């Protein structure tokens, strides 16, 4: 009887381990791709604790030095973090020295260098905040030394602010809206010091 109970418990635990691998709650990693508890191709819905780790889609909390998500990230990325990378979209918060999202960001990027290759809706705060000036837009606020985005609907506050178009406010030493022309029909220069307004 005791043997049956022990085997039943072991069977349940092994089933739980197999199920956890499909969408794991906990990931621990020294250096991706090995050694990791959960393979880099798996999803994590929970907590990742790592020196450097990589997973496909992540929903939850990242704690460690370097995080890579090849798909989408939802949650808080970056307690004690040097580098955050998301290959898809970010919904939530990225805190780290360097934050890089290949897709769109909905939320907050905070670090020394923040990059979004697609549009950002929310807040970027850091030394350098860059939203791809060829094809991505800002709806929200950029706070930093250097701020750049293609179409800005919101506020840029920094020493150097750059936008292709502006519906909002730029405050800084160098405020540039590249789509402006200085002629009798559009009497606004591309660059304004201190404050720049766009409608």
What's the short story on this structure?
With 199 residues, this protein is mostly beta strands.
Polypeptide structure, described:
The protein has one helix and twelve strands; from the N terminus they run αββββββββββββ. It is mainly beta and 199 residues long. The protein has two domains: 96 residues, no CATH class; 81 residues, no CATH class. A six-stranded parallel beta barrel has the order 3-4-6-8-7-5. The longest helix has 21 residues.
Total strands: 12
Task: Give the termini separation.
Answer: 79 Å
Taking Cα atoms only, what radius of gyration do you get, to the nearest Å?
22 Å
**Contiguous uncertain segments of 5+ residues:** 3-21
| C-alpha geometry | elongated
Topology:
Elements: H1 2-22, E1 23-31, E2 43-55, E3 58-69, E4 73-79, E5 83-86, E6 90-95, E7 98-101, E8 105-116, E9 120-131, E10 137-157, E11 160-177, E12 191-198
Parallel strand pairs: 1-2, 2-3, 3-4, 3-5, 4-6, 5-7, 6-8, 7-8, 8-9, 9-10, 10-11
Antiparallel strand pairs: 11-12
Keyphrases for this structure?
single chain; 199 residues; mainly beta; 1 helix; 12 strands; disordered N terminus
